[in-house]
Amino acid sequence: MAEAVSMPQLPREQLKFMQEAAKRQRPEGAKQFQELHYSDSSRLRNLVDDIFADHAALDKRSLPIEGGGSTKFLIMGAGMGGILNAIKLVQGGFQQDDILLVEMGGGVGGTWYWNRYPGLHCDVESYVYLPMLEETGYVPSHKYTSATEIRNYLVKLVEKFGLEERILFRTEVNSMQWDDDKKNWRVDMTTGKGDGGKKKTTLSVNADFSILAGGIFPYPHVPKIPGLVAFEGDMFHTSRWDYAVSGGSSEDAFSELKGFEGLRVGYVGTGATAVQAVPEVAKYAKELFIFQRTPSQVNTRRQKPTDLKEWSERIATGPGWQKARMENLAQHLSRNLPEGTVNMVDDEWSRLQAYCAILGSERFAGLMPDKIPEYLGHLQAWDADHNARARERISTIVSEKSTAEKLTPWYPTWCKRPTFSDTYLQTFNKPNVHLVDTDGKGIDGVKPHAIIANGQEYPVDILILSTGYRSPAYGGGDPAARNGIEIIGRNGLKMSNKWSSRGATTLHGVFSHDFPNLFFFAIAQASATANVNHTLEVQMTHITSIISHFNPPSDPRDKKVVIEPSAEAEEAWAMSCLSGAAFFSSVSVCTPGYMTMEGDALNQKSQEKMMQAGRGSPWSAGLVPFERMLEGWRAGGLEGVVVDTI
């Protein structure tokens, strides 16, 4: 049980949190948004076109596989997760020719391919975020590296491990169906070429193993705003920043956005993207109107170039240094800290005492429902000082009192991903920058040349939509729903039906009974931390270890091995996750957002639905204990896996 903590009374803060959350509750929940990929409007669908691809060069590439062909491993996604999984297979002894990566975009990088907005840097220290620094010897240029550097580094990783010819670009997986006679997956895809990649053809291939690594934010969305489609100025979503409109270049995080000069720019959203992009837009726009529904918590960043002396003497200190540093940050975030633990990363993330609320912690192992109020009290007490300092920081930076008040967030730190900037709040002191706070309502509508908010029209020439993505919790964490594909396993069982009828059902969050040789990256029934690379490292190591154990690369290439968890093992795992679900009751006090599916996740109507949702809870002890548990399971012989060899 948790250590004794002095718990100050926080009636004013708690009341304010409740009031602000209530303002933002909408009966339609997540349905207040529309996903751009699936919009009825061609204009909105076109906002997610690939404007970064070199289509002429891609048209000249030879396809790594032809229709009807076969591959041992098909990996869906060539972002950080897909690249890392492919590299681990190569490091384990498999051949590059055994691997096919399927990527929707025209290049590698995933979120770092699509997101190129100005000012974009990783919000986690690059020394723990960039994968395989120890293996490559690469030294990031800054403590928090730019999107361009990250994207270029991932390209170099692909080249270093000989995977550049093993990627099928501009290709979307539509469905996967298990063939129990052939013991493989039939994967149906749509691939593009010519005419900007818009000439579509279908392609079907066979894969012994399929691995889903499509990321957690593949689908940008926008609010269902009346009149949005009829806006007559230039409009784009930040996930496809249009430098033809703004000026500048996607290869320079701080390039000159001269396309905004002399123009009125409307910017919708004040989340993590806005915190980085808004200061850059404000340098060039004649007037910048920033429309806010919910303010972000903005902490200090303290960006700095990498000091090579510090790098060699205190960071890259010897074998295993990056893994140790990643685990150190995860331990600080989960408050799983052995006595005398040094803070290696030493940044604002590592000092967020209550962020364990959504990551897990051993401090509250075995939390029972009747102890939830006491547990929430501990979390709020841990968060009180930090939250108060973050609010106070706004009033010391923003000169106009009313603006500072509107920029002040009123929710526990763990309810939204905290942000870090030394320029965002300062931007609101500029005379050309205007905050339009909607008091939680969002904007009312759009006219051909104006945005309507709070009953008032704001004339704008350009509209930037910084409105986020579909929640990773979509479909209860169902991998098929999250990746936008249909997955049909043994005996015609659809994964979506399995999830909807029972809730999350996996072993360790990475594979599921009746879906043989299918692996996926997940948060449901797994674990996570603020550093996505660490989460990927743990899960991709686990996936490749399972495959290599039962089908080692030394086996004949035509040997067929079928791997899946037993029904009993995955049900026991689901019950284990359910037993820790009370830990994540912390989100019950949160303002609606992507973590709660805009409040939908908090509105379960029956005990049965609550139990189903609870099955999908992450491992409640935190990522490092989760990793130690997985390592012990593998060392003990991988109990609960059913294997058929042909």
Report on this model:
The protein is 31% helix and 17% strand. It has 646 residues and is α/β, with parallel strands linked by helices. It folds into 2 domains: 1-38 and 220-302 and 347-468, 3-Layer(bba) Sandwich (FAD/NAD(P)-binding domain), CATH 3.50.50.60; 62-218 and 471-580 and 617-645, FAD/NAD(P)-binding domain. Strands 2, 3, 4, 5, 6, 7, 19 and 20 form an 8-stranded mixed beta sheet that branches. A 5-stranded parallel beta sheet has the order 9-18-10-11-14, covered by helices on one side. Strand 5 and strand 6 (184-193) form a beta hairpin. Helix 4 (80-91) runs parallel beside helix 18 and helix 18 runs parallel beside helix 21 (623-635). The longest helix has 26 residues, at 372-397. The radius of gyration is 24 Å and the shape is globular. The protein starts with 10 loop residues before the first helix and ends with a strand. Mean pLDDT is 94; it is low at 1-9. One of its GO terms (molecular function) is flavin adenine dinucleotide binding. Keywords: FAD, Flavoprotein, Monooxygenase, NADP, Oxidoreductase. This is Cyclohexanone monooxygenase. Belongs to the FAD-binding monooxygenase family.
